[in-house]
Amino acid sequence: MTEDLSPAERYAAARIRAAEQSTALAPFRELYDFELDPFQIEACQALEAGKGVLVAAPTGSGKTIVGEFAVHLALTQGRKCFYTTPIKALSNQKYNDLAKRYGPARVGLLTGDNSINAEAPVIVMTTEVLRNMLYAGSQALIGLGYVVMDEVHYLSDRFRGAVWEEVIIHLPESVTLVSLSATVSNAEEFGDWLDTVRGDTEVIVSEHRPVPLWQHVLAGRRMYDLFEEKSGAGATSGSGATPSAGATSGSGSTSGSGRRAVNPDLVRLARMENSRTYNPRDRRRGKMVREADRERERRQRSRIWTPSRVEVIDRLDSEGLLPAITFIFSRAGCEGAVQQCLHAGLRLNDDEARAEVRALVEERTAAIPDEDLHVLGYFEWLEGLERGIAAHHAGMLPTFKEIVEELFVRGLVKAVFATETLALGINMPARSVVLEKLVKWNGEQHADITPGEYTQLTGRAGRRGIDVEGHAVVLWQRAMDPTALAGLAGTRTYPLRSSFKPSYNMAVNLVSQFGRHRSRELLETSFAQFQADRSVVGISRQVQKNEEGLEGYRASMTCHLGDFEEYARLRRDLKDRETDLAKQGAAQRRAAAATALEKLKPGDVIHVPTGKYAGLALVLDPGLPAGRANGHRGFEYHDGPRPLVLTAERQVKRLASIDFPVPVEPLERMRIPKSFNPRSPQSRRDLASALRTKAGHIEPDRHRRGRSQAADDQELARLRGEIRAHPCHGCAEREDHARWAERYHRLRRDNRQLERRIEGRTNTIARAFDRLYALLADLGYLRGDEVTDDGRRLARLYGELDLLASECLREGVWDGLKPAELAACASALVYEARTADDALPPKLPTGNAKQALGEMVRIWGRLDAKEEEHRINESEGVGQREPDLGFAWAAYRWASGHGLDAVLTEADMPAGDFVRWCKQVIDVLGQIAEAAPEGSPVRRNARRAVDGLLRGVVAYSSVG
Question: What predicted TM-score, i.e. pTM, was given to this entire model?
Fold first, then answer.
């Protein structure tokens, strides 16, 4: 209380309050009806002090407050602020938020296919747009004071992550950078890099969730807490809001290692459920299970099952845990879940809410023609919305997705079934999050979700200012391991790993601005190289320690008679030469044995020299390798002859080369009856008896090994002579010195391997750039520090197939195409099928378009060979993938003016995917129009193709 303070203390407190009131933070705080958290205040104060900031905090903790303060500072100071996001949907959402707060006149939006108020002091944009502005030297960068990079942890994305690093490296020094990230375990390392490339950067890490998160497992009718409560209670049978020790805030008992203990009831359940069921054969093994035990087990099992989707929503609704997002890692699964709820008669909205939903949906979809609504499944979708149930995935029309998001935030949709894309930044928090499974398809195989993915998904649970707590519910599955689940839930951070790789477009843009040498230096400042350099620090220390060890070994092997290192090298050379000769001898013997086996014919009687079936045998089939059938029809093997034989003991076996360490010669010949059946015991017995009678008395020739190569080898003789003549050969402590010399040799060999590892990780980015530069120079895009006309065209083309697009323009592949045909060709530059398609080849337009697409594939093949020549590896993220023609027909038909129903039916593609790919084709057509020569047919037709594609659902699918 101020009356208890001394006059001096009251004066000091007044000074502090006055100082706070004079900052830009004070009026900013008044814009919010809640108190800012300490980490938000700390970050805002650092920003106002002129520092850059990196804020790493959990999803839903309010990181964006710091970004919004940067906007506030820019407007206060009369400067510009760019707010970048990784996806268009998030850009749209942030644009709407900022326009509502500061007015649409002061806020603009720039995405790949949209431009609203581009001259505004505050512009929301996707990160790629800012990268392109930096390379183009856009006038919009004048007066730029702040750049906010929301979801900056995207730089670990293997496809798009490089863009974030390009922006961070190339932003003018005068720009203050605000980096907002999910909680990552190496935030300090990332902050150190930012400090290096951007100057003074404050790292603020907060792992505190403003809304505690409680972890549960739903099995049958019971909701088990994942972590043990102090009281030991295992399940919340009543109110789902009963606090459990699964709270991320850290309450509950912990094990000795400091980790929270897993609920023992759940562990027992898993042990019982995953144990081996009763098997009648156990009776024969002396493990008879009593009937009473089996009956009790059956009763227990009947209470455990994986609840259906309808049961889950019913349970959450009855316990007051809605709204909820259920993550299903499949688009079809999301749509199927909605249908299951509709068929079960599930209703989560009353009549008033239903009317409100219908009114909002009809208003938002008024521009969509009735015939398109039918194609888009509008009426089934609307029925689900009216009941408070919806799906959310990338295959949906963007307009539909945005309506679902708005209704969910307003509490009019209470159950959403979504794919993991919803977790990527969209502001759509829920009271509960449900995970059906902990396994998802990653494009190549079914894999367990990572701790980072689990954190991102469950981070949606708990709405700040609305919910007291959030709930993460994992559905019980057979073979579930509660301990592994606890590990996922307990690991709330994951490391940020750079995915930065130079591209052709990046190379020409860098050389254009900075020249080759400076470009190389700039790439060395990337986070990827920063991490690689740090990773070699430990290896370098080991190399240094090994060098000290080598000095000690060298001293211990010193001989007073001469140079023992030289003597040891002679001994090693002798040993290596003897080993080589022994290998050569063994290889020659194997070759001689194989040659002898190849000469065998059916009916030859041989003596198998070694192995399990050593002794007399009759060749039934020579088993020659592929392409060496020698006139015989038999099995083909690629690892040498494998003869099928009948042994004197009546066994029919196929032998291998290992059974013949020495050449084998036929002892006799026998006729094999045509009636012989190797599967008939009687046939085998009769033929084996005839074999013993025919050749049982013959003694096989003992194979005499020829004169050893070592006996006549001059190099061996020379080395032995030098060793005997060396002064150290007569040393009394020779063998002791030799042991130290051997240790010295092994350690030096290990050290060289470590040095090669260091060399492989040092300058990796610069070496990749050098290879790209060499290829571009070969093709005439670069000449020293000069960018040619062809290079300047490439500088305007962004994307995975930038070089292919440039080569097509240079060779005039698209010159004679109509707009729709050009749209088909442009689609091959961006489209990638979601899964590898091993079915029929895609349908293509005929005529000029088909010829042009074929020419594009041929040019790609030439570039691919060129990349191989320059050791540019596409699997490492550098280089050109093969163009995918799977969307060419759909793009051609849509650009030609055909209806949505016909195009979607022929493409067999969801509306959302169709719109997304059309927008990407529009984007690349815009780049082609900019890169093509002024007044050329390609420039004119590219713009006409954009007009042909930008209609109907593609045109009215939201602002982004």
Answer: 0.70
